[in-house]
Write a structure and sequence with these properties.
Elements lengths: L3 H12 L7 H5 L3 H4 L3 E4 L8 E4 L16 E5 L2 E2 L13 E5 L2 H11 L7 E4 L5 H10 L4 E5 L2 H13 L5 E4 L11 E6 L8 H6 E10 L5 E7 L5 E9 L16 H7 L6 E4 L11 H10 L4 E6 L5 E6 L5 E5 L4 E5 L4 H14 L9 E4 L4 E4 L6 E3 L1
Parallel strand pairs: 6-7, 6-9, 7-8, 9-10
Antiparallel strand pairs: 1-2, 3-4, 3-5, 10-11, 11-12, 12-18, 13-17, 14-15, 15-16, 16-17, 18-19, 19-20
Helix pairs in contact: 9-10
The structure holds S-adenosylmethionine.
Amino acid sequence: MTDWTDAARKLAEEITAAAPEWHDSVSSTPRHQLVPRWWEPIPDSYPFAWGLRTPQPDQPWAETYADETLVTRVGSLHADRADLSDRPTGLPTSSSTLPGLIVRMLHLLNPGKQDRVLDVGTGSGYSAALLAHRLGGQQVTSIDVDPYLVDAARERLAAFGRQPHLEVADATRSLPDADYDRIIATVSVRPIPPAWLEALRPGGMIVTTIIGTSLLISAQKHADGVARGRVQPESATFMRTRRETDYPARLDNVYDAARDQPGTETRQLTGTLPDLWEDWELRCLYELDTPDVENRSATRDDGSQLLWLLATDGSWARADSETMTVHQSGPRRLWDDLERVQARWTAAGHFPLHGMTVELGADRHTLTSPDGTWTLEL
Ligand SMILES: C[S@@+](CC[C@H](N)C(=O)[O-])C[C@H]1O[C@@H](n2cnc3c(N)ncnc32)[C@H](O)[C@@H]1O
């Protein structure tokens, strides 16, 4: 069996070419000790389910030192506490993020040797491990809403000599301490909690992502208390913050009504059916405009497509490319909202979302298109 350090060094070479200051942290961090077991999707399972994975005896480092996300908790079941026969069907509620993305975000964060850093979303402890290696444990605070994750990470990090300050906290509420030079979040938020801006020193940086979008933003706090920055060129998608042990159930009850009922309004579909999976920019803009709409899609054998939009208030829409119709129901007209956003984005020249500017003030957080004509509230 080869030593894990060869695998870690290889990973460091692969992912730190543009961020060489993180090379030694990656090559000296035993990710396999932080992620001894994880969940993998079971191919062709219906409903979609997860199965437990442990390192393969003949290639013990292949997965833990690949630049891949390892899902460690599904619904309320952590892989550490699962049996081989468990087949959870929920959403991931914790993971060890792909190391390359952590390194890109840390490079953006650019902490100085004396800086105090808050790592939001301890998860497996991997990001805290890299930070503690580079800055020393006393400079790093890492928080997670889940007590088991915090305890497990503390014990595992200590086993290889990293001792950041770890604490159980809901990052959407108050923070332990209120004095950081850098805040990095590997869990998505919306809005950016006011406590984060209050806790950040002037000149400090925030690197985070926005719920329901793949927008990675970085912003620096100015002397006037406002943090200003940009949507970064790379995409990053993180699970959303939660306050409970699991996320609320998906909108199956709304889908039951939306699946094939006529609804209260039926009209012609104008134009082609958007592919909200492929067209991630439209999906982000729609999410920013009309938050928390769940979308589902299906393709029939003849290639025609269906798209459903579902909301917690019972509003739904269904568009069908075969009949070229749209059905809508409930208090809001979700398809009309999608068309409005699509038309506005077309009129705005399909600007790159990665060029948007970010402004995080005391009572207003905004993203603005490069030409300044479209401002979206966070
Ligand atoms: C993608 S994981 C973090 C990955 C981690 N940084 C790593 O390197 O392994 C996201 C984490 O955010 C945590 N989380 C979710 N909601 C939270 C909240 N409200 N406050 C703090 N942490 C939260 C989850 O429990 C989960 O462990």
